[in-house]
Design a protein that fits this description.
By secondary structure, this protein is α/β, with parallel strands linked by helices. It contains seven helices and six strands; from the N terminus they run H-E-H-E-H-E-H-E-H-E-H-E-H. Helices cover 41% and strands 12% of the residues. Strands 5-4-1-2-3-6 form a six-stranded mixed β-sheet, with helices on both faces. Helix 5 packs parallel to helix 6. The longest helix has 18 residues.
Length: 212
């Protein structure tokens, strides 16, 4: 318990203030809308060498096609597929970001995903001394989801508890794929679909009538 409290206090009181002045050196894309992945690809060139993790977003071939279309770099880009909730996004990805030695993380989500995503980002990352910058690209149409006050309360509560426990434990994720390693030919053989807002056809060819 003493080690847990000491680690938490050091991260929050010493590391976090220092890292708040650091430039962004990690990007975390929360799954839920292909527009977030498009935005990440569009800004990737502004952050050379910075690790980008897409957490349980679109199917891997859809993400790769987006990065190809935007002529974005794919080095240091990973697709994480262990998460099944916003809490899981941080549960599995914070340890991945820590392994890259990040100081300040840009978290990409949607306006409709706030304030829950921002609060969870701050709790999970601040508890590790990592600064947070939340970025929300513009979405088209009316958001299909609405934040539940109860879900926000429950996620914030368990995040606060995990912030303490995670000082000693780092959960592994066994389903993390480098974006460059995604094999489009294999996916085309299996067949896949992408969210229509991505402007990509079923078999992975750009669809001119749906370009964003």
């Amino acid at each position: 318990m003493g080690l847990m409290v000491t680690s938490f206090a050091f991260n929050l009181l010493i590391r976090l203030p220092i890292n708040s002045n650091h430039t962004v050196d990690g990007i975390l894309v929360l799954g839920g809308s292909i527009r977030r992945e498009i935005y990440a690809a569009q800004i990737a060139s502004q952050y050379p060498e910075v690790p980008i993790i897409v957490s349980q977003g679109s199917k891997p071939p859809c993400i790769k096609l987006i990065f190809q279309r935007e002529q974005a770099r794919m080095e240091q880009v990973w697709v994480e597929q262990c998460a099944y909730s916003t809490f899981d996004n941080f549960f599995f990805c914070v340890p991945l970001l820590q392994r890259h030695g990040v100081h300040k993380v840009k978290v990409i989500t949607s306006q409709s995903h706030l304030p829950r995503a921002k609060w969870l980002a701050q709790i999970h990352l601040w508890s590790k001394g990592i600064a947070v910058e939340v970025d929300t690209p513009k979405e088209r149409g009316v958001p299909g989801n609405h934040e539940s006050d109860l879900k926000t309360f429950l996620d914030v509560t368990r995040s606060l508890m995990w912030a303490a426990v995670s000082q000693l434990i780092q959960p592994p994720c066994s389903d993390v794929t480098p974006l460059k390693a995604v094999n489009l030919a294999e996916w085309n053989n299996k067949g896949f679909t992408c969210e229509y807002q991505g402007g990509l056809s079923k078999l992975g060819r750009p669809n001119p009538s749906n370009q964003p």
